[in-house]
Every structure is written in structure tokens, then in C-alpha cells.
Amino acid sequence: LAAPKPVLRVRLTRLLWSGRAIEQARGSLRQSVYELQHALGEEASALLRTARDHLLLLDDHLWVDARGLAWANGSDSLDWEMLQAPLLDDLDGLDPAFDVWLAEQRQTLRQQFILMAEAALSAAQDASGQRRAAELLLRIEKTHEGGWHALIRAHLDLADRTGARRAYDRCLSTMAGA
Question: Is the pTM of this model over 0.85?
Fold first, then answer.
């Protein structure tokens, strides 16, 4: 996620091996970098640069989905379903320090997704587009008042009073449970 900026080795050891002695953590990082380079094979030199005090992931030959999502601007090309899966969900519990960092990264991405969904809602040209954008926003942030208002208004603009009433009832239920 930091690419193309270098990440200090000491930062990585504190995130991944916070409970180990410094020398043991450094050794674990060296071993992990070696295994990563071996796994990457011939591509290793095109993707990863190692230096005495830092590591650098070269992202010109790599696409990172979380960064790709952050660069998007709410366009139809964005795979909104990817928002449903937590960032690096298989790495929960790796290390307490890493868990804190991961929670911060997830929150940052979530806020970016909310901003993108709000932008999509603002850009929607008609009631159908507003309804889709509002539903998307509410999948990301179920208590977003502006999303609920836009969804109900879109149903009313589409002369769908039943849909508006259902959206209103969903809103009440969601807010009551929040």
C-alpha cells in the first residue's frame, strides 16, 4: 500500500514481529524477504528493491486492488463488490501491531469508498441512477442519512411510493439498530 514509497525495515519488523527481540525480528524479516524473492523468481528484481534500511515495492509492474480502488472516481469500471471484503482479511491476528495498522488502513479505505459513493450519487443524472448510487452508498455506510434521503427521494421521483415506503421502513429499522 505504500508503493512506490520505500518502507523502513524497522517499521516492518515493528508491525510484523512486535513481540520479538530486535535482532530476531530483523532475522525474520531477512528470511521473509528471501522467501518472497524466491517465490517471485525472475520477476523479483522488477518488483522489489531491497536496501540496508528499507524495502521498496516497484508498482509499475504491479496492480494492487486496494490502491486501484482508491484511484477510481466512482466510475462504472470500479468493481463495487470488492468493497464487501475486508482488506487483507486473511491476515487478521498476525501481530497486535499489525492489527492496529490494518484497522487504520481499512478505515482509510472505507472513508475513500464513502467519498467515491457520495460522488457517484452527486453525479447521477436521473432518479434510477440516484437510486443505484444511494443503494451503493448504503451498502458501504448503512447509517448514511444522505443516502437514505436520496434513496427515498429517488423512489418518489420514479413514482414508486411502495419502494419509497419500504426504503423509509428500512431506514427506520437500520437507524433503530445502530
Answer: no
